[in-house]
Amino acid sequence: MTAPVRELVRLEVEGGVARLTLARPERHNSLVPELLDRLLAHLDAVRGDEGIRAVVLAAEGRSFSTGGDVRGFHDQPATDLHGYAAGLVGLLNRTILALMDLPQPVIARLQGPVTGGSIGLVLAADLVAAVPEAFFAPYYVSVGFAPDGGWSAILPDRIGVQRAREIQLLNRHVGAAEAQTLGLVTEVVPADRIDVRIAEWLATLDGHVACGVRAAKRRLLPDWRRAAYAAGLECERRAFLAEVTRPEVREGMARFLDRRMAG
């Protein structure tokens, strides 16, 4: 008897709200092609459903998402690594832009770390609620990867080039409170209140005129800015591919994984 296919991203729709939940908690919701494929398919369904007025992007487990699965990269044969990376980063870029393009407002619910390319899922959201323990961190200089997920294509536009440079070169963690100050998080909320706060935001949005909400969101991402983000993400993809097959990156992945196993 064939085992049921595991759903890496769940879509639940209730009361005009679509809840998308990353469901790979045993790997900290790290990104693999299968997960991004499912997320893209769900986003396409949500986009075409006029009965959906808002979207909540959440995750199971202790982490929101730790970005690209380093184990997934490391375990690729040398001959397949470039193709695997091209596919994964390309899917991530498509997902970020698909989130931005949704006519419905998107609320990100951060219950833990957001590292690597998964920051792009948050940068694409309109409102972000985070628990105090949540944080952002790049880890690119620790592994050898070039930044993806908007760390160079979108983040400097949000927080300034110098601050983005400092965070990435020093591989510095940005806690939830600092992220709120920088404008990456809308509000820091205790874990036992985060769903209440999101429900309050949803109620506020539901009390507005739907076409007005969608028009405001559309004007806040004009065509020229969206095009600049898309071009920047493609530049990130090309830079990532130029670095990922270097021997020192293979060594960096092994060291990173060894530290994780030891920790």
UniProtKB/TrEMBL annotation:
Domain of life: Bacteria
Alphabetized Pfam families for the sequence: ECH_1 (PF00378)
InterPro entries (alphabetical): ClpP/crotonase-like_dom_sf, Enoyl-CoA_hydra/iso, Enoyl-CoA_Hydratase/Isomerase
Entry GO MF terms: catalytic activity
Family: Belongs to the enoyl-CoA hydratase/isomerase family.
This protein's name: Enoyl-CoA hydratase
Lineage start: Bacteria, Pseudomonadati, Pseudomonadota, Alphaproteobacteria, Rhodospirillales
